[in-house]
Amino acid sequence: MKSLFSLLVLVFTLFASSEFADTASCKKCHPTITTEFESSMHKHASIYEDKIHKAIWDKHPAKAKGNYKCAKCHTPNATTQEQAREGITCLSCHTISNVEKHAQSNKNVYTTKPKTFFSAEQGRETEVVKYKTVSSWFGMNKTTVGSAYHDIDYTNEQFYTGEMCMGCHSHKQNSHKFAVCETADAGAKNTKQNCITCHMPKIDGTATTVRQSAQHAYHGFAGAHVSTKMLSKYLTLSYIKEADKFNIIIDNQAPHDLMSHPLRVVQLCVIHTRNGIHTNLKTHTFVRVIGHEGKPDMPWLATEVIKNTMIKAKEKRLISFDKELKSGDQLEVVLGFYVVNPKVLKKLGLENEKSLKEFTVLQNKNFTIK
User: Fold this and answer.
1) What pairs with residue 268 in β-bridges?
2) Phi, psi (degrees; rounded to nearest 5) at 210
3) Would you write out the chain's pLDDT as a tens digit for each of its 370 residues?
């Protein structure tokens, strides 16, 4: 009876509201996945957890009106402040039934079927696993059949590509109809390499305690803030020696720009060594700067791209250095990024945030010239 009572409490916790379920509820059956998720930027998407998002919102003119339009992606299921602190929850993604495409920004359409979560698993593309209880001993003993606490619909094709991510990650236009940020959805539709395969790769460990599996999709969501090593494997660095100069080649194998957020800054640093003497060569910076009337400005004021040198999707960028190389010379090549452009930190009041000042290395290669 005690176990039955515990089950009923859990079911009530999960489904007392059809609009909201916190991460703690899911952790009972998905401990590994939710532990990963708790460190992700999805979980920390709200203004209460994301310092960058809050700094921008504090300057946004809509704040004075209390018109938090960012909620549809940053806190999609919240109806109270307490729920808003949860940011994006498991429910936020796993109940998306479809994505409507719109000019200003796309829109997630959520299922109205109670206790129904969408998921993806190879080999089960046509299955819908039903949640139900089976009674015995005149109703005294009840057990669950199929999924433990909810239905699982494996038939949603968008969960097998990156299309289900495009409700929030496709593009965002401001009131001037200018695209503040944009991710080409062509890559999302690719069945072999897409948002899911890159940002949620399969790693060892069971997805649930109810049914054991050898692997599960990583729910920390690899990106600029978390698990940057996963991004690094889509980048390669090489060099070409010429008569009086050399070139560094940055090969971005990702299906999108190396960094899509306009606050990011990527830098290439090269140290040349000859006879024990180290020389720092010119640092090359790659950015996408947005603004108004030729000057950088806040996203809601931007009407144009001021500068765009960001490494593009599937691009091999050749960077030249006016330095003759000799046999025995050494090159240390470092490619990395800042989460927030150092020039913008003070404007956002984030100049004292140590973590945002850090330079994150994506690739570090050493070459000895022959």
Assistant:
1) 284, 335
2) -75, -40
3) 344 334 333 443 444 444 455 688 899 899 999 999 999 999 999 999 999 999 999 999 999 998 998 999 999 989 888 899 999 999 999 999 999 999 999 999 999 998 899 999 999 999 999 877 666 666 666 666 667 789 999 999 999 999 999 999 999 999 999 999 998 777 788 888 889 988 999 999 999 998 889 999 999 999 899 988 888 989 999 999 999 999 999 999 988 899 989 999 999 999 999 999 999 999 999 999 999 999 999 999 999 999 999 999 999 999 999 999 999 999 999 999 999 999 999 999 999 999 999 999 999 999 999 9
Look up tokens 């999709």; give the residue. 217
- Give this prediction's pTM: 0.87
Give residue for tokens 């952790």.
Answer: 27
Contacts of 235 (CB under 8 A, 6+ apart): 250, 251, 252, 253, 254, 258, 335, 362, 363
Instruction: Give the integer Cα–Cα distance in Å for 160 and 288.
Output: 31
CATH class of the 232-368 domain in this structure: mainly beta
Per-position DSSP letters for 176-190, written without gaps between them:
TS-EEEE--THHHH-
- Copy the structure tokens of residue 206: 């069971």
Q: Break the chain into its structural domains and give their ranges.
A: 2-43+88-217, 232-368
